[in-house]
Design brief:
The protein is mostly helical. Helix 6 runs antiparallel to helix 11, helix 10 packs across helix 11 and helix 12 packs antiparallel against helix 17. The relative contact order is 0.12.
Length: 392
């Protein structure tokens, strides 16, 4: 699409360790930093956030929290994210092509989210400094670039100026260019609220990123292509399902816009593509969406969680997270491929979500909700053999 094909492959059994052995050894060593079942058990027994901090001092987060006098969920999240970013940036400095471009691809998603956060925040009149503070560190541009993004109008002409003036020299510029080209071909659409238009832009950019990333890993070949292709297909399907579900009650669900605006947001990769996404384009409500997903066994069980209305205390997002964690854990089982780097970042994000959830439950004295998280590399996970040994 926009990223040139890799000039070399990831390597094979004879050459992979020569090229990428050190960074792979690092990321596999970092796997030991994930919190275990005992760590989570101790955290869920805490009565105060001071107890949480004390327990985390026995984990890999000890140094990250050492200078924090009072632990609060937002502070914990920021410290944990900064720790992840430091680790990722070290891996990036040790990488050569094509691994370095692969790692850059991981950051493009955060760049897109940061751009859209700045654009959406300015619609509600929020302060630019507050918005920049909320941006993900892995997706940061130069400060001058970050401050320039919110100055453009939320109009087709404003987006054109934003691309030509600011984003053209950024890694996500090509994706924004594709969006502008597609919009120009369709003609201007003015019957969409600005807030909805921002979400349409974000979904479009993420779609282009997924398709570009999938094309790149396919060109790499080998184990990287086999494992990452499946991970990205599932990611694409998740996007398509969420786009459809979130469109209900918005202009995107109007019959005239389903087959045009909404359908073009579905990535052109995935297990649902092309037959499933074509059916999703005609869906008008949750019942119809459920009937489509019943045709795909890997998603029917996830949809049943949503259809049950969270009766077991689990939302559709929880079901997606559980499925993602299972796939990402399995990425560590293979050898001589790049998928472990992607898996490490995403599994660390899940661990950070778990920490924030637990600390919020303790802070708000909602201990009955505290176990509603998805642990990483847990022996009690239903897809791991260890759960049988524990009789669970």
């Amino acid at each position: 699409m926009s990223t040139p094909a890799p000039k070399s492959t990831a390597g094979n059994m004879a050459t992979f360790n020569i090229l990428h052995g050190y960074p792979e050894a690092l990321v596999r060593g970092m796997r030991s930093s994930f919190m275990g079942d005992a760590d989570y058990h101790h955290l869920t027994q805490c009565e105060t956030l001071d107890d949480v901090k004390l327990n985390l001092s026995e984990t890999d987060y000890a140094d990250a929290l050492a200078d924090m006098n009072t632990l609060i969920p937002t502070g914990l999240q920021k410290a944990a994210v900064e720790k992840l970013v430091t680790e990722f940036q070290y891996l990036r400095t040790q990488a050569i092509e094509p691994l370095s471009t692969f790692l850059d691809f991981i950051t493009y998603e955060y760049m897109i989210e940061n751009v859209m956060l700045l654009l959406k925040g300015t619609l509600s009149g929020r302060d630019i400094n507050e918005l920049i503070a909320q941006c993900h560190p892995l997706g940061m541009f130069k400060e001058s670039t970050m401050r320039s993004i919110p100055t453009f109008e939320s109009t087709p002409r404003g987006y054109q100026d934003l691309y030509q003036t600011v984003l053209v020299d950024t890694p996500v510029g090509p994706y924004f260019s594709l969006f502008l080209q597609e919009t120009a071909l369709r003609g201007e659409v003015s019957n969409v609220l600005e807030e909805v238009e921002i979400e349409i832009i974000k979904s479009s950019l993420i779609k282009y990123w997924i398709e570009d990333f999938a094309k790149y890993v396919d060109a790499l070949g080998g184990e990287t292509a086999a494992i990452m292709s499946d991970i990205l297909k599932v990611r694409a399907d998740t996007n398509a399902i969420n786009i459809t579900l979130n469109s209900f009650g918005t202009p995107l669900n109007e019959p005239a816009m389903r087959a045009s605006d909404r359908k073009r947001l579905y990535p052109a990769v995935g297990h649902l593509y092309p037959a499933g996404t074509s059916m999703l384009a005609d869906v008008g409500d949750e019942d119809e969406l459920g009937r489509v997903l019943e045709l795909f066994p890997q998603y029917s069980s996830i949809w049943n969680v949503h259809a049950a209305g969270g009766s077991d205390g689990k939302s559709i997002d929880d079901a997606f997270y559980e499925r993602d964690v299972q796939m990402l854990e399995l990425a560590f089982e293979g050898q001589m491929h790049f998928a472990a780097f992607y898996a490490y970042v995403k599994l660390k994000e899940q661990e950070i979500r778990n920490l924030v959830w637990i600390s919020e439950c303790i802070l708000q004295q909602q201990k009955e909700e505290i176990h509603k998280f998805v642990p990483v590399f847990s022996f009690n996970a239903p897809w791991r053999a260890g759960s049988k040994k524990h009789g669970r």
